[in-house]
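pinging the channel bc i need a second pair of eyes. not urgent but kinda urgent?? the chain im working w is below, pasted from the shared doc
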Amino acid sequence: MSTISLHDTHNHDNHDDHGHHKETFLTKYVFSQDHKMIAKQFLITGIIMAVIAMGLSILFRLQLAWPDKDFPILETFLGKWAEGGRIKPDFYLALVTIHGTIMVFFVLTAGLSGTFSNLLIPLQIGARDMASPFLNMLSYWFFFMACVIMMSSFFIQTGPASAGWTVYPPLSALPTAISGSGLGMTLWLISMVLFVASSLMGGINYVSTILNMRTKGMDLWKMPLTIWAFFLTAVLGILSFPVLVAGVVLLIFDRSFGTSFYLSDIVMGTQILPNEGGSPILWQHLFWFLGHPEVYIVIMPAMGLSSEIMSVNARKPIFGYHAMIYSLIGITILSFIVWGHHMFVTGMNPLLGGVFMITTLIIAVPSAVKTFNWLATLWRGNIRFTPAMLFAIGMVSFFISGGLTGIFLGNASLDINLHDTYFVVAHFHLVMGSAAIFGMLAGVYHYFPKMFGRMMSKKLGYLHFWITFACAYLVFFPLHFLGLDGVPRRYYAFTEFEFMHKWVTVNILVTWSAIIAALAQVAFLFNFFYSIFKGKVATQNPWGANTLEWTTPVERLHGNWPGEIPTVYRWPYDYSKPGAEEDFIPQTVPFSQTMNSNMPHDFEGNSESERIQREWEAKNTPEDAPKLD
């Protein structure tokens, strides 16, 4: 109790007068230390990067669908990289590389976690701001610099990095290997180091804030699932991202200082290089030690957001709250011991491969627990189909359909045949890409009133959802069949081999679906930016939710609450409780005010005074019950 009091005092003493500081344009909008403004900066930067990545994907899909056709407009925009209106093979690989890098790291990691961890952690746990607002500001600007450096590689003579988003050596380790191995790769490496620095600053801040700055009564078992997801995501990032930096440092040594960590017995043209003793497999171990936790760094915030949104809009308590938390913890722990399933074809000892196969299949169990709990939450719920709810349900759909193919790829005997085919592309674009994007969009629609004080258009939201949902399946589901037929990923044209010819028509369908999906995002972008300025003004709690963020005023306030921070008495999912006057009971309502709906299990784990009150209530009439402070 004394710890909570100290934190509570800290929150009030140090942050009460934030609203009285004289703010300039720079301190309010650019170098802001307010977590809500930083969340908006992450979100809008993430949206811009997503639009760029989507544009790159349309470019290389044009090449795959019509490999023998010229598009003169491409030369206008891309210059020497598309002479005669046809994308060059080395630039095609650069497009694939930068598209993957932007989506995985800049949109789904920084855009998703950076936005919603910043927005919701202080608001949902009852804190004035982050543990270190200055560090929080720095984390955004490091991310912004990483984005700028990555995009600057399109404007250099040799072009962007070209080695796939996993940047495997030797293409990444030899600056003279191909044009994209030169300065473009150096910029990629610098950008990623800045990005990791940003992620670590953010992650340390998120963990510190959640552990130290919860309001009175907010114990770990009263935290919303969003906070649990952000907390465990930050832990994953803190433990796994430094390994990528170690790998990048060794790669820079190989590129610039003549070392041989990843290189051995290389012949360039007619020249035998002096490198010996290194192994490109070392890079794979270091990269995938981050790479697989990264999958969960991407999907867990989307899981947390979708859990919260489904409970609010199904007007039901989340099913299996404790099981959801334990499954998140299970995913966090197991994600560190599955990276080898990306490496079954590297000559790995079959015994070790068997160990990685078992852990990979075991990690499907907590994922299945979450899936069943979401479905049980929806079952017989009084569902409100808001755009946010539709995107949350869409997230579950993609997680199931994409996750099932993960069982195939986790099995070594099947993966060896499917490795580096379009089956893998289909799998991770559904389970990680589409599911995480839909979770992120659900969060944007749901929390837009909290961020901007206005409502987004429902009609445009429905249009955006249905077109995007249908097109995402049309883009990625057919790719499974290409993979089963052995079509390799990252190939420039499907006309090079006879057996691939039959798949060109499927690629045309996929490309048209991708173009339509891209056009659907125009509806979202218009809805988003128009609603910031012209949307209907939001009420304080437009969704009838229980969590603390909806107790703050609609207008922006640095410090979140104008007076005392509310005290928390109950868990965040008291929806449609028998005997209650309304179908939701906020966390700030004491049990003494809800006599008709209190249940025996409500008092488990609560404070001593509430247990005493429970005993008192058993002997007295509800009308005479004392009020708890």
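so Residues 11 and 128 are 6 Å apart (CA to CA). and The beta strands are 267-268, 271-272. — does that match what u expected or am i reading it wrong
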